[in-house]
């Protein structure tokens, strides 16, 4: 008998007592209609020591100190207005070593969850592949206000489960040494979020 | 037509080599270890309580989480088949392993097939359970742990002592000493500041991440309807391993399934707040098979039984399979706080380990673990999926072998306690017998307790004080009022 068939047979035998069907009570909150979602998001992001900026005008200043910038191929042109450094588009794909030599990466996102201060990337428009936002030490992420939802259940309904998903809540961190939270281990040590209003 | 196959117990690092009281003795006598544990568990309890209190629907989330897991257990065979079909359709290859040895063989063979002689590893309880690092080493494959705490433990040639923070038993000075001794590229002027220690680990692992060809991970959740795997982490080492190598091998216990992608809305709220006391962990990665041009292009999933079918077979003990490895029960447990994780022998320490390990191996092979508890119930209160750990502990104690003298004592006690008159007489007798001793102890020490009893009752007082009977019982006092 194959391992697969044997394990399935063992599990079926184990359930010989015939456990009754289960109704899952879903009485938890699935929608948050708070008016101040963006303020909550900012509060939670800053609590995790991400740096938050408002408005597209913040980008040129943020990028002024960046000599080598990695971007997905479809990054909107207006995000790069006036950028004078070396621009590295991810086509053909940048090698891990090349990504490691970047000063920063600039991307958009798919959804942001106010309640937990989480930004979700799904490899959709202006996000690129997973390695892009992982290897460079500084991640500048543009979040449009219409991408902000209140609660995690709202975020999941906006995502395609088959896409590679990366959820980010603040910069890389560890709590392994005496349970002190230290920002910056293997992922980007700096996360900067630029919030822009709908349509901007 | 297949005939019934019996559920089987598992093997690997889930067995206590020594009885718990023996294994705990050294830890309880080590003041540095007790101080480290006390500080760490107290800190994380406070953090967890703060972020749980701010969630108005916490109890509703726990109820949903508990019910979803009960549903998974009830439908495990069909959900596994569904998961296999979805993951395969998305480009992953699914393997099945009856036990620890078979799971290790599969990973070794896949690593060799990828032409690699080293792997980078994401922290995973399942791979510790099956002793994968040892099996890889025996096959000439180097396994590099990349989680900071796992790296500390690996450098220290030690074993993890906590599910979530495996190096919880070390303080910063000890970690600095381990790095200086074992990390070839540690800075000469390394301080014991946590930021400096984390920076040293970053520099040490960076090149390895960028060049690794095979990664091995576990998974926090496996979603049946989509074939998605989920890994929750903090440092980014998980993302590195799950993204950069060409081949990814994920070792997943069969109980890790969730029926639908939507169910993640419950568990991704319960897990981070219960484990690290954060609203959300810094990084969560989800992948479904292979995505062309993005991440590993060869994805293997090894589904492991290794005793889980035996746990499923016990209707009382079955909910232990609901565990999401958050470790809130460890941090709440007065026994864990004093004994530390190593005393439990298994990779699953603390209250959950005390019910999970004996069920995975068979109670006879881990008979002392169900007693590694005061039955205070703190673990049940904090469990995000409401596993009634005290109930299962009592159930397992009944199954463990008991010495004849103990059985005789309990039978006598049961006879005495069944009848109110016999019970009152026994209390009177005990008080009269111990009265002078109690009065003497109270005069000398201010407490009516005994430190040790003569053999064979000394086995009881080795780790406990024995309170002597009070001068009068409550009933007697009440009768006089």
TrEMBL record, chain B:
Residues 80-304 form the LUD domain. Residues 321-387 form the 4Fe-4S ferredoxin-type domain. Keywords: 4Fe-4S, Electron transport, Iron, Iron-sulfur, Metal-binding, Repeat, Transport. GO terms for biological process: lactate metabolic process. The keyword Transferase does not apply. PANTHER family: LACTATE UTILIZATION PROTEIN B (PTHR47153:SF2). This is L-lactate dehydrogenase complex protein LldF.
């Amino acid at each position: 008998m194959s391992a697969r068939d044997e394990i399935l047979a063992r599990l079926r035998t184990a359930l010989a007592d015939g456990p009754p069907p289960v109704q899952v009570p879903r009485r938890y909150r699935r929608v948050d209609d708070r008016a101040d979602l963006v303020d909550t998001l900012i509060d939670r992001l800053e609590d995790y020591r991400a740096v938050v900026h408002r408005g597209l005008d913040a980008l040129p200043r943020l990028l002024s100190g960046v000599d080598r910038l990695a971007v997905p191929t479809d990054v909107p042109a207006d995000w790069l207005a006036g950028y004078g450094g070396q621009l590295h588009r991810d086509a053909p794909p940048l090698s891990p070593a090349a990504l490691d030599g970047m000063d920063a990466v600039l991307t958009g996102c798919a959804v942001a969850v106010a309640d937990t201060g989480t930004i979700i990337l799904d490899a959709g428009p202006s996000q690129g592949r997973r390695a892009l936002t992982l290897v460079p030490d500084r991640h500048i992420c543009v979040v449009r206000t219409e991408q902000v939802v209140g609660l995690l259940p709202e975020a999941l309904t906006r995502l395609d489960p088959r896409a590679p998903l990366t959820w980010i809540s603040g910069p890389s961190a560890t709590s392994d040494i005496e349970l002190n939270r230290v920002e910056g281990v293997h992922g980007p040590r700096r996360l900067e979020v630029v919030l822009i209003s709908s349509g901007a | 037509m297949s005939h019934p196959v019996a559920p089987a117990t598992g093997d690997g690092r889930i067995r206590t080599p020594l009885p718990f009281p023996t294994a705990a003795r050294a830890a309880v006598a080590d003041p540095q270890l007790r101080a480290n544990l006390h500080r760490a568990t107290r800190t994380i309890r406070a953090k967890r309580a703060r972020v749980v209190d701010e969630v108005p629907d916490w109890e509703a989330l726990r109820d949903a989480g508990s019910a979803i897991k009960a549903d998974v257990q009830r439908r495990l065979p069909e959900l596994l088949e569904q998961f296999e079909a979805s993951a395969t359709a998305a480009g992953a290859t699914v393997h099945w392993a009856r036990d620890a040895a078979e799971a290790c063989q599969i990973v070794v063979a896949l690593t060799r097939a990828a032409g690699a002689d080293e792997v980078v590893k994401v922290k995973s309880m399942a791979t510790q359970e099956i002793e994968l690092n040892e099996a890889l080493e025996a096959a000439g494959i180097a396994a590099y742990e990349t989680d900071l705490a796992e790296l500390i433990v690996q450098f220290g040639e030690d074993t993890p002592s906590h599910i979530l923070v495996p190096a919880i038993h070390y303080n910063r000075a000890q970690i600095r000493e381990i790095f200086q001794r074992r990390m070839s590229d540690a800075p000469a002027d390394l301080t014991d500041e946590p930021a400096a220690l984390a920076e040293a680990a970053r520099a040490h692992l960076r090149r390895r991440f960028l060049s690794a060809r095979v990664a091995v991970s576990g998974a926090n959740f496996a979603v049946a309807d989509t074939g998605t795997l989920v890994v929750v982490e903090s440092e980014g080492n998980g993302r590195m391993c799950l993204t950069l190598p060409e081949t990814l091998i994920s070792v997943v216990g069969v109980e890790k399934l969730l029926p639908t992608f939507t169910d993640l809305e419950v568990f991704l709220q319960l897990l981070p707040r219960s484990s690290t006391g954060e609203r959300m962990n810094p990084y969560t990665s989800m992948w479904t098979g292979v995505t062309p041009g993005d991440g590993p292009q060869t994805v293997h999933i090894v589904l492991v039984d290794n005793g889980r079918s035996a746990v499923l077979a016990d209707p009382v003990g079955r909910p232990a399979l609901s565990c999401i490895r958050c470790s809130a029960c460890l941090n709440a447990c007065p026994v864990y706080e004093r004994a530390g994780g190593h005393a439990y022998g298994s990779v699953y320490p603390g209250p959950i380990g005390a019910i999970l390990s004996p069920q995975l191996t068979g109670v006879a092979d881990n008979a002392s673990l169900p007693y590694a508890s005061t039955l205070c119930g703190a673990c049940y209160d904090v469990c995000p999926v409401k596993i009634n750990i005290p109930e299962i502990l009592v159930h397992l104690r009944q199954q463990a072998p008991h010495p004849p003298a103990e059985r005789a004592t309990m039978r006598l006690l049961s006879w005495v306690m069944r009848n109110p008159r016999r019970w009152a007489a026994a209390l009177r007798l005990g008080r009269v017998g111990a009265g002078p001793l109690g009065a003497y102890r109270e005069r000398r020490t201010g407490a009516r307790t005994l430190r040790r009893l003569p053999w064979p009752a000394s086995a009881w007082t080795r780790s406990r004080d024995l309170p002597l009977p009070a001068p009068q019982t409550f009933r007697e006092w009440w009768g006089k009022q």
